[in-house]
Every structure is written in structure tokens, then in C-alpha cells.
Amino acid sequence: MDALRVRGTGKPLVGKVRISGAKNAALPILCATLLSDGASRLRNVPRLRDMETTSALLRFLGREVTFDAPEIQVAAGSQVRPEAPYELVKQMRASVLVLGPLVARFGRAKVSLPGGCAIGARPIDQHLKGLEAMGCSIKLERGYVLAEGPGGGGRLRGAEVYFDLPTVTGTENIMMAAALAKGRSTLVNCAREPEIEELGRILNKMGAEVNGAGTDVIHIVGAEPGKLAPFDHAIIPDRIEAGTYMVAAAMVDGGDVVLEGAELGDLEALSQKLRAAGVEITSEAQNIRVRRRGPLRSVNITTAPHPGFPTDMQAQFLALMCLARGESVISETIFENRFMHVPELQRMGASVALRGNTAVVQGVSKLYGASVMATDLRASASLVLAGLASDEETEIRRVYHLDRGYERIEEKLAGLGAHVERVKGAEA
Ligand code: EPZ
User: Is it true that domain 3-19+237-423 has CATH number 3.65.10.10?
Assistant: First the structure.
């Protein structure tokens, strides 16, 4: 397994960085190609492991996929196998996003339960509840979801679906199922992330009738079987990658970074908290400029569903608060185990006390270099940020976590003056 060696210079990041396409928009949109038999093209797709995994899954299902970043082309193959095996789903739990499209398009699906992951149990009960409301029969057998349309594989029926809590991929799965269900569906208490709005745009481009994507109530009129058309679309920028580089710019006094192609509108909650910490944020056309001049103020955050403070930015913001003056209280309300970066940051000299789903951070004057372990995607990003702020060397192991969500991170950071190198095979 590779490691990243960050040689902290104690100097701020300065320069321009281009933000890649959003992985969490590309994933559901690639699964939406299962709803049509034409040849679709997706552009501005980041070269990430999760994109390779999704391509492999679509090929397994019988699609012809060409992934030549930043483009992916998907077309119908000669046969369809509506089955997502454990070997593929265990690599990426978002594979569960094929469930809705498969049962809507082919009347049945056999999809491995994703299982939990480092940050939490991550059940899919809301996905299954939504499909059952649409007439789907669901059986759980030997770690698989066996889903079948009404009457032994018939067409799903439009329905009213009430989510017990806002779930991003749950909302996306049911949107795609409703796009081919018979009649109208109303989805209530939906997640409101920009990636859901983007999926709504795609389903409309394909010929479904989707209104309200990005709000908590979504109305969908399903298209007739075989009537959804392929699409050609360039996806939105990755707001979490952008947020990560915004925090990176603030880690050392004097930081001045322009994020090219980022959308400030998707990052209001983060921007407000960075400004409260004393960071200057301005938007210039399609760019965001982040400057840090002077000491950081401590700021409290509580993660919440969009448009609240994103849980995917909690680890990165906590790393920043390790260097702020005073005490910050960081509360994580979305996942039950999303503080695994804390013990690693403590090895670097951070002063953090964990109490249940809250971390109390006391700012320190500096962080030390250390050997640390990445545990999940965003935790690994927070360790890179901490390494950038130190003036010593930090080695971050198991960076395959990082490669899931950050395209060419060494190159992008080097372009901002950081010294980051990949150590191949650092760990057997
Ligand atoms: C999506 O995961 C993102 N992944 C995650 O990003 C992100 O952290 C998460 O949304 C929250 O914003 C993709 O979009 C591919 P949820 P998802 O369903 O959909 C509970 C990253 O870093 N829940 O919104 O799996 C669940 O346990 C990844 O890029 C149920 O109880 O998250 C959690 O506590 C990590 N039952 C909460 O809801 C369900 O059926 C929110 O989960 C579904 C979810």
C-alpha cells in the first residue's frame, strides 16, 4: 500500500488549483445510464478509484463502458445481468445505487448489502422502504438484497415515499426508480445536496419529469418503458474537494489560493465558518479565492444535512481548529464514528478531547511531523492538511483511502508550493 510523505515547510500555500468533477455526482449519474439503452457520455469525470469501480460494476451488469478520464461513455451491451456481487459492492458502498435503476428497468435485481464501513453502520433501510412503497418485494438472503417488481418482476408503481431521515443515496436510488415507475411519485423529507439536484437535471434530460430535486420534496412522473434517452453531460465541480483546498489555504498564515471552477454557492455553510475563523473568502467569476492573514479564531461547528455544515468537511475543519486560538467544539451528527482522524492528529501534537459525538479542540501553536494512518477518505485528507501546517515530515499510510476522492492530490498540492511525494508500496 502506498504512503504520502508530506514535508511541511511551515510556509503557506499560494497559487491556483483546478477543482475536478464531483465524484458524488458522477456515481448516481453513471448508475442512471442503466435506465436507458442508448450510448451516454459523461464529461468532467475525475480519475478516481471509485470511477474505475463503478465502470467495472456497469460492465459486470452487461454495459459497455469506456473510461478515458475525464470522459466516460456507457452503452448497452449484448446481455444484462441485474446482479451486483459482494466483491464489487464491498469496494464501494455507493454501488447500492444500481438497485433502483435495475429493478425499475429490468423488474428485478440482486445486489449485495453494502455492509458498514469505518465511519458507521450505514444501513440502507430507507432505500428498501422506498422501493417497497413502489410495489417492489424485497428479500434479504445471505447478504444480498433480492428485489422484484410487482407481480413477479412487473413495472414499479409511482408512490408517496416518506424518508425517516434525509439520505443522499437513498433519495437518489428512489428518484431513479421513480423515473421509470408507472405514474406519479412524491418523495418527502429528501436530502437536498447539489449532487441530487444534478441527478434531477440528468433524469429530465433523459425524458423523465422531475421537479424539486435539491429541495425536501421531489415530484416525479415516470416515463414509459424504453422511453428514457441517453444523455451527454458535464458534471458539476466537487464541492468537498473544493472545501478541502479552501481549508488547506487557511492552514498557514499568508495562504492565498484561487480555486478554479469551484462553486461558492454549494459551500455557504463552510464559507461562513471559515470567515468566522478569520479567513477571507471571495468569489471571482467561476473561481473562489481564499486568503489567510493573521491568527485563526476558534469556531464551533455541528454537521447537518445540506445546506448545513457538511459531514464530509468535518475532519478537515477539525484539523484547522487544532491551530486556532482557544477552544472549538466540533459535533458530528450524521455518522456515529467519524472521529478516527483525532487519535492520528493527537500523534501530531493536537489537543483534542472526544466526548461521544463531540470533539473539544484546544488550539496549539504548532503540529509535529509523525507517521500516521489514514482510516477513511476525509480523515486522510485532514492528516494531509495537518502535515502541510507542520514544519516537519509526516508520512500518511494507506492513502488508498485518499485516492478515492482526491484526483492527483500530490500534483495539485505541489502546484501550490507544497512538498508531497507518494511512496509506492510503503506497507506490505
Ligand atoms: C452520501 O453517503 C455520500 N456518499 C457520503 O460521502 C456523505 O458523507 C453522506 O452522503 C452524507 O452527506 C455518496 O454520495 C456516494 P446518507 P450516503 O444515506 O448516502 C443514515 C464521501 O466522503 N441512513 O445520506 O451513504 C446513515 O447511517 C462519502 O464522499 C439510514 O439510517 O449517506 C447516516 O447516519 C462518505 N438508513 C445518515 O442516514 C438509510 O437507509 C446519512 O446517510 C440510509 C442512511
Answer: yes
